[in-house]
TrEMBL record:
Subcellular compartments: Membrane
Membrane topology: Multi-pass membrane protein
UniProt signal peptide: 1-28
Primary location recorded for the protein, binned into one broad class: membrane
Annotated TM spans: 190-210, 222-244
Domain TM2 as annotated: residue spans: 189-236
Species assigned in the record: Calonectris borealis
This protein's name: TM2 domain-containing protein 3
Length: 253
């Protein structure tokens, strides 16, 4: 009986061991399945990263091929020495003697093509210019904004703040856009010759004052018959020397 009981216990022990071994095998397979499932998204994500990293130089290349805005101001295959200042980069020497000729080494900007006197393309060249700052240029070398709010006929003559820009073919030192105080020099379209002719012929009726936009003075001359001729003679002299001008404060043409 004791041997029979021991045999049964041994069978139970073997069954438990078999069950534990199967459970261990099943758990190992499940773990491998889990690892393979998790490894697939990682590999996909890694592929996406590698594809993104390989595409990055492509976008950089696309950005580098964009044409800068200054290229539209630069004539293609023209003389390098005649390019506008926006098309080149120069090593300016601020220690040059004012008013004397100066030579500067320049280089064309990217995407700009120019040639020399022999029609050979070049990148490095020299330009000759007068040693002076941009705000010291002659008035014909830059363009300034006009003001229609100041009076041109005043004592002393009024000035206004203007913003000036150097012309493209002019080279100078410093900023090419600068502020400057200018005299009021705008015109409303009135002609000095017309005003003087009206003052001589029809000044007794105030035609000259009406033409210049001075309605009160014109009515005064009209109803006083030109101040009995005295006002008419005075206006002829004042308009002739330019002392009397348009009512809007502008200059004669």
């Amino acid at each position: 009986m004791a041997a029979l009981a021991g045999l049964r216990a041994l069978r139970r022990l073997c069954g438990v061991a078999l069950f534990l071994s199967q459970l261990y095998v099943l758990s190992g397979r499940a773990g491998s399945l889990m690892t393979t499932k998790h490894s697939q998204p990682q590999s996909t994500f890694a592929k996406s990263l590698t594809s993104t990293s390989t595409n990055t130089p492509y976008f950089k290349a696309a950005e580098s091929t964009e044409i800068p805005s200054y290229v539209t101001k630069c004539p293609s295959n023209g003389l390098c020495s005649r390019l506008p200042p926006d098309c080149m980069t120069c090593n300016t020497n601020y220690s040059c003697i004012y008013g004397k000729p100066a030579t500067f080494d320049c280089k064309v900007k990217p995407h700009v093509h120019c040639v020399d006197q022999n029609n050979h393309e070049q990148e490095n060249f020299t330009i000759n210019m007068t040693c002076q700052f941009c705000w010291q240029l002659a008035t014909t070398d830059y363009v300034c904004t006009n003001s229609t709010n100041c009076m041109t006929v005043s004592c002393p003559r009024q000035r206004y703040n203007a913003t000036c820009t150097v012309r493209d073919h002019i080279h100078c030192l410093g900023n090419r856009v600068f502020p400057k105080m200018l005299y009021c020099n705008w015109t409303g379209g009135y002609k000095w010759s017309t005003a003087l002719a009206l003052s001589i012929t029809l000044g007794g009726f105030g035609a000259d004052r009406f033409y210049l936009g001075q309605w009160r003075e014109g009515l005064g001359k009209l109803f006083s018959f030109g101040g009995l001729g005295i006002w008419t003679l005075i206006d002829v002299l004042l308009i002739g020397v330019g002392y009397v001008g348009p009512a809007d404060g502008s200059l004669y043409i």
